[in-house]
Amino acid sequence: MGLYPYADKYPVVRAFPEDGRPREAILREIEEMAETEDSPYHEGKISGSIYSGDEEHYAFLNEVFGHFSHANVLQRDMYPSATRFEGEIIAMTADMLHAPEAVGVLTSGGTESLMNPLLVARERGRERGINRPNVVMPVTAHPALLKGAHYFGIEVRHAAVTDRFVADMDSVRSLVDDDTVSLVGSAGTYPHGLVDPIAELSDLAVERDTLLHVDGCLGGFILAWGEDLGYPVPVFDFRLPGVTSISADTHKYGFGLKGSSVLLYRSAELRRHQYFIVPDWPGGLYTSPGMSGSRSGGIIAAAWAAMVTLGRSGYRAIAADIFATAAAVRRAVEAVPELRVLGDPFFNVAFTTTEDSGLDIFLVNDFLASRRWRMNGLQRPSALHFCITRPNTQPGVVDRFAADLVGAVAYAREKAGTPARSGAFYASGVTTEQITSGMEWWLDATQAVPAAPA
Predict the structure, then answer these.
(1) Which residues are paired to 161 by β-bridges?
(2) So what's the pLDDT on residue 426?
(3) Which residue spans within 108-165 are E strands per DSSP?
(4) Model-level pTM?
(5) CB 386 within 8 A of CB 365
(6) Which domains does the chain possess?
(7) Residue 307: phi, psi to the nearest 5?
C-alpha cells in the first residue's frame, strides 16, 4: 500500500485532473474513509489522539467552524469576531492557570507554542549580551523544543531524570550557566504523563534570573482541574514566581478542533520578543504576533465555543472521569506481576515489563494491537503508554483492557526471543507493518496476532 492506502477502493490522483468530479462522489468517499478510520476510537481502544469523542460536540464545533472557515484572521477589520474569540480564550486560559494578568497568543498547535518561547528566550538573552544561548531541559521534554532550538541556534542541554522519570534537579543545576536563557519543565511529560518538579525549577529560575517555560501542551487542560477534584497534582502554573510562560493545547484536553493552542506569558514585555514587524515594506506595515500568517477564523471560533459551552463545571466533570479511568488502568497494569508502571501518573499511564520477567514490551503491544488497542510506543526505556481520553471512560473499556493485557503478557512469554512487529514511534505506537501499509492491517482482524495460549 505505502503512500496509497486506498488504491484498491478509490482512483489514485497522480496528476491534476482536467475536469472535476461530482461533489456527491467526493462526499461519499470522504464519509466512507472517515467512518472506517474513526471506528476504533468508538470502542475506546485508542490512546490519546481523540480527546473528546463526543459526536454531538464535534457536530456543534463543525457548525461553528463553518461560519468562519473562510475567514482570514489577519484581516481583523473584516472579522473583528476573531479578536473577541482570541481575547476571551486567552482570558479563560489565564484564569484557569492562576494568572488573570497574563498575556498570550493563540498558535496552530503545541509545536508552535513550544518554539515561540525559545525565540523569546533567545531575543531576551541577546538584549543581555548573550550570544551563545543555551536552554536546559530534561531528556523527556518534547522534541518540538529541539526543533525550535535547531531553528533558532540555541544549544540544548539535556538533564537526566530520576528513577521516577521526572527532571533530576542536581543534573539541571549542573548544566545551568551564565549563557542559559531558559529552563523547561513539563506538566505532564508526553512519554509518561508526569509533572516535573516545577516548583524547584521555579526557584532555580528566580535564583539565576532566567526564564522558565512550562510545557502544558498535553496536560494543561486536564491537570489544571486535578486540584479542584482532590488529586495531589503539584502546582505547576503561574502561582510559582519563576514560571514565565506556559503552553496548553486547546485541541487536546481543551476539546477544540485540531490546530489550536494557547501560549501565555507572565508579562507583555516578554511577549513582545516574539512579535515580528516590518515597518517600511512597500505593501504596507507588516506585523505578526507569531510564526503563523494566514489562519482560519473557524479554528479560533471552534476553540472558543468548546470552552464557553463546557465551562469550568463541564471540564471538571470530564476530568473526574479521566482521572478515575487512569487510576483503574494503573491498577490493571499493577495487577499483572510481569508489568510495572513508570512514575506516578494522573492521566497518562506508562508501563513496561519488569526486569525479572525478561519479556519484550513490544510483543505485549503486538497482541494488544491485534485486539485493536492502539498504545503509544516509547523508548529509553522501552515501554507503552495509555493516554486516557473521553472515549476510554466508557463503561467496560478498562475491564476489556485488563483482560487483554493478561493475554498480551501470556503471548509475549510464548513468543519470547522472536522479533516484535511494533516499536517506539512518536504518535504511532503501532506496528511497522501498519506504518507501511496504512490502515489496512490495523482494521483487518484476520491478520491479527494469534490468540494467547491458555
Answers:
(1) 167
(2) 63
(3) 134-138, 155-159
(4) 0.91
(5) no
(6) 72-295 (3.40.640.10), 311-447 (3.90.1150.10)
(7) -70, -45
